[in-house]
Design goal:
single chain, mainly alpha, 0% strand, globular, disordered C terminus
Length: 273
């Protein structure tokens, strides 16, 4: 019975793995064939020999490396900023007492119900007044803190950062910030790692807001650069897939390297409960 159960478990895991990996494999297959093969039926599931050629064509049409570095800079900066400011705000809401705390927290959570598209016009007007169009400031500053990040870390902190630890630190003469830096941060590291992965992936894949505020190709992120591969009268699907496949590799590397922390951050709350 146990052998059958183990066989079914491993079969399900293998099937899930294959379903998850297939889109990336299919991108590689399309990127290694001419565009005429993309809509061919039955499809060709074997990679071809034109991947390097399509990559070279893509590099000739856009500044892929520059856009990739821009995305790395913006995503990393926003991720680090959110980790610090969201954790700091979460510590205040979780373990400090001040007037209007519950109202402010509910107000912050309420902003999650407002579609982000509603803020595009006023946000663009603000960026214009600040002269931040075609600047990384327009991407970084609005993303320095997020309501989801505050909510996520506060909920985790409520279950892992015991009030006795905070009181002990205060009795030892620690200020609020010292307690946050020396006691709270090490305790919530799994939640921080999870937020880092989610924030990095969101910033990396963000397309709408960068396409509005970034006009100059020198400051384009990778998603905007890949959009420029779409021509008016012809769409070279193989070249687009070659760029998309290469742009996905950094995300896979970050996720695989941090998967252990991601899983522990997701499950820790349930285990402790």
């Amino acid at each position: 019975m146990k052998s059958l159960q183990r066989l079914l478990t491993y079969s399900l895991l293998i099937l899930t793995f294959l379903v998850s990996v297939f889109p990336f494999y299919w991108m590689l297959v399309i990127a290694s064939h001419p565009t005429s093969e993309a809509n061919k039926f039955p499809p060709n599931f074997i990679p071809g020999d034109l991947f390097i050629t399509n990559v070279q064509t893509m590099l000739d049409q856009i500044d892929f490396v520059g856009a990739l570095l821009n995305s790395v800079f913006v995503s990393t900066t926003v991720t680090i900023a959110q980790l610090f400011f969201c954790a700091l705000a979460a510590f205040a809401f979780s373990r400090l007492q001040f007037k209007g705390k519950h109202f402010l927290f509910v107000f912050i959570i309420g902003t999650l119900m407002i579609p982000g598209q509603l803020g595009l016009v006023p946000s663009y007007m603000i960026m214009t007044r600040l002269d931040w169009i075609n600047s990384f400031n327009a991407l970084i500053v609005p993303g320095l803190v997020s309501a989801f990040g505050i909510f996520w870390i506060k909920q985790y902190m409520d279950t892992t950062l015991h009030p006795e630890l905070v009181e002990s630190a205060r009795m030892d003469g620690c200020s609020n910030f010292q307690t946050f830096w020396r006691i709270a941060l090490p305790t919530i590291s799994p939640a921080m790692a999870t937020l880092a992965i989610l924030t990095f992936m969101y910033q990396w894949n963000d397309f709408l807001w960068p396409s509005i505020v970034l006009k100059d190709s020198a400051v384009h992120t990778i998603q905007i650069a890949l959009r420029n591969l779409n021509k008016v009268y012809f769409r070279d699907v193989s070249v687009i897939m070659a760029g998309t496949f290469l742009a996905t590799i950094p995300l896979l590397v970050v996720f695989v390297a941090s998967s252990r922390y991601f899983i522990s951050g997701i499950t820790a709350g349930a285990v402790k409960g």
